[in-house]
């Protein structure tokens, strides 16, 4: 018998994370918004899905989180009935040095330009 607190979600192992999947996940503005939010948190604190407001439907939000998790960009664990999300910065930085910082810096520059 499975309860919400014991449900485990599939995540790729570090060595299974592929650059093309990460780039695809980061190519969507909504998913980039999630990554930007999580990158702004300190340490491994994480945030629930509901704490990250996206201007899309609940089912679309669920899709975006799933794409990020399956690409290895975020880790999701259940805490009670809430899914907590943490950016897998350590894994991404080890596999693709500078990629995440570069993408976030480019995103900041683009938003400053109004794009």
UniProtKB/TrEMBL annotation:
PROSITE patterns: HTH_ARSR_2. Gene3D superfamilies: Winged helix-like DNA-binding domain superfamily/Winged helix DNA-binding domain (1.10.10.10). It comes from the Bacteria. InterPro entries: ArsR-like_HTH (IPR011991), HTH_ArsR_DNA-bd_dom (IPR001845), HTH_MetalResp_TranReg (IPR051081), WH-like_DNA-bd_sf (IPR036388), WH_DNA-bd_sf (IPR036390). SMART domains: HTH_ARSR. One of its GO terms (molecular function) is DNA binding. SUPFAM superfamilies: Winged helix' DNA-binding domain. Keywords: DNA-binding, Transcription, Transcription regulation. Residues 11-107 form the HTH arsR-type domain. The keyword DNA-binding applies. Pfam families: HTH_20 (PF12840). This is DNA-binding transcriptional ArsR family regulator.
């Amino acid at each position: 018998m499975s309860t919400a607190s014991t449900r485990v979600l599939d995540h790729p192992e570090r060595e299974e994370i592929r650059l093309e999947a990460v780039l695809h996940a980061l190519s969507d503005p909504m998913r980039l918004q999630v990554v930007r939010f999580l990158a702004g948190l300190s340490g491994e604190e994480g945030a629930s899905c509901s704490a990250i407001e996206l201007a899309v439907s609940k089912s679309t939000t669920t899709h975006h989180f799933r794409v990020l998790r399956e690409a290895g960009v975020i880790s999701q664990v259940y805490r009670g009935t809430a899914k907590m999300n943490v950016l897998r910065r350590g894994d991404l930085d080890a596999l693709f040095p500078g990629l995440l910082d570069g993408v976030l810096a480019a995103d900041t520059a683009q938003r400053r330009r109004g794009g």
